[in-house]
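Trying the structure run again after the queue cleared.
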Amino acid sequence: MLVPLYDTVHDRLDVGPGTRLLALNCGSGLAVLLAAARGATVTGYDADPDRLRLAAERAAVQRRPGTLPRGSRPHAAAAVLRAGAPEEADLRDGGYGLVTALDPATPADDLRPALSAVAGTARPGSAVVLAGWGPPERCSAARVLKVAARLAEPRGTAGPAPRLSGRDDLEDLARDAGLRPDGSGRVSCPFGYQDKASAVRGLLSTGLFDAAVAATDQQQVEKEVAEALHPYRRPDGTVRMENVFRYLVARV
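Done. Tokens:
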């Protein structure tokens, strides 16, 4: 569902052969694989072993004949996937001209150390792209995500950590890390599901509802998320939520 965001960033930064890309918090790897399919040399880092395992499985499937995404180069290099965060030596030796942090679910505090390392180590002029949610009034999913915060409160369980939202948050994070903002944009990324059950399952898979489940129980969270989705159900039973995401281009 975030493919429009990934494609827009890759188009704007001319990702292709000759691009050396470092992906922070690469998650289950879709953005990384799309960049590699364009011919870029890509290294992705993530702290979650389960998400990295899924990324590796996707990479294996992508390398099978006839399975590359449309527009891919036939000899695209395989993405390199690593656990944790890059060390300064990795940043110095990698020769990266582009660093991305495109997972809008990543809290700012989790990104700041890695971005500061990039700002202090990567070669001057390198581009760093951050992504976050757009304004809440432009994101239908933000209204549904409020269920997570509300249900996490009764037992004092910490709700979802604050997420990046809008250009100002992205610019503040970039400047705090020692980067120089150099342009931004916004992209429409609707969330679509074949039915209500798929929508509930998909939203809970993000991890943003884990604290709510711990404070209450799985059944209650599923019930309240399903109720919150009611305004977004269409006559054919599908669910569609209109969302806008922001991205910021910064420079080392």
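The domain at 3-251 is CATH 3.40.50.150 (Rossmann fold). Worth checking whether this holds up in the mutant runs.
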